[in-house]
Design a protein that fits this description.
binds glutamic acid; two-stranded parallel ribbon; mainly alpha; Arc Repressor Mutant, subunit A; 13 strands; elongated; Rossmann fold
Length: about 550
Amino acid sequence: MDNKDIAGLLYPDVNIDIEDIFKRYPKRKLKEGAVVTRFAPSPTGFMHIGNFFQAFISYNLAKNTDGVLFLRIEDTDEKRKIKEAKAVIYEVLERFGIKFDEYQTLDGKDVGEYGPYVQSQREMIYKAFAKKLVSEGKAFPCFCKKTEGKEDVLKQRETKFNEDDEKEYDPCRDLSYDEVKAHIDRGDSFAIRLKTKNTGTERIKFYDLIKGELEAKANAKDFVIVKSDGIPPYAFAHAIDDTLMGTTVAVRGEEYISSTPAHLELFEALGFEPIKYCHNPLICKIGENGNRRKISKRYDPEADMRYYFVNGYPTDSVLEYLLNMINSGFEIWRKNNPDKPWTEFKFGINDITAVAPIFDMVKLNDISKNVIVKMSGEELYKNWLNYAKEFDGELAQILEKDEQKYIRLCQMDRDGAAKPRKDIYNYSMMKEYFDYIFSAPKDYELAQEDKEKAKEFIAEYLKAFKMPNSNEEWFNDVKALAGTLGYATDNKLYKQNPDAYKGNVAKACEFIRVAITGHKNSPTLFTIMSILGEDEVKERLKNAF
Ligand code: GLU
């Protein structure tokens, strides 16, 4: 009795011919240099920024080489809540405009010739390859039960194979046909393990497209390739899928480097050409203690890709920031090409950073300010309204009711301005940032010692108040009044002798600004006043402080 018979005992119903499988997945016809790559998320109900980072790198590699990008859902481990969890992946990808050439729709229709693009629908293929490996003596069934406890298994292992502990040969690796048959007849469940050909002393070299040549200890462990529930773990499934689906470059996180020797042994056992891996560095943060740490779902809300749309970041802001992380040359390119869409920035595998990028909110916000500043007032209004419709219904109603007013607000210091104001970095901040437009201020950013002076000045300003017709007119009126009330109209004179004055004109302007908006800083006050209208402005001046 040989291995083939053992394989037959394990998989009596698996009769797919490997040749036929390969016929179903013909070699892709590709242009020279075209990259076939994939995004292979597991549906965890969450899209980590690190995963999205891979999707975005893969998307660009395929796009920049006229290649192919496909989506493969790796759901063999995630049996629970699968539908909702999948929906999260699709939603994030769609919102960020990551388009795939091949994928399965959420309702289960494959688009592309290399499907099914969902691993749980590929079990027969994995079984066929597992059967092949067992019949070739490269894998074997393991009947050790989890419930037996690891210690028992290890003890068994020690008595059977105690030459050295550099390897982890499984106690079941040499079961005879009769032993296997006895287990099967008893109805025992089994996992399949790879029979490693290594002894624990070998080292291997492999090439990573980002990090170059790497060397590591070769795998010497009989690791599981099909679990006892019939499901293959990542290592086995991806080796088969990436081969059949014609992946030329697999972008995946750096955390997989340590298992790459095992993966490469699997490719060899399966008789596959090894695929090219591109292990991207993980996005980090500087922790409170000043040390680098991986950005984590647990501590960092921004690790969840939903954070960005819930907080109203334009997708381009996030994508530009990620490009910045992928290749620092993007920043210079952006400076030299301020008006081009980011899609024109092309990078290849060699341009991907090998150093872990540090996530920095300030930087993201800066980039986002630059993205938003390019929007016209009307565009900004529309985006803000769309955001509000989804996340703040009450605000959406307000914005829709007085469209012209809010368009003017969004245009302020923006449309036609020589130096548009770079102040807004997401749509969620706008409600608070423009709080004075929705209601009169309740708090005033005014120093205690200025209070009396401010009251007195505003009272006088109100007495002679007329609605200005231009910014200059407004300023000149304030300046004239300030002069008569003992404020310096010449800043040089004021600086020479500050005690001779109540303050300077800037101070007087500040009083009015704070009275109307509550804030010391705001976009052009004249514009705010004209949006609010005369009655409202007067009312606010009357009630100020
Ligand atoms: N499902 C794996 C993950 O989400 C995929 C890794 C890969 O891209 O090969 O980490």
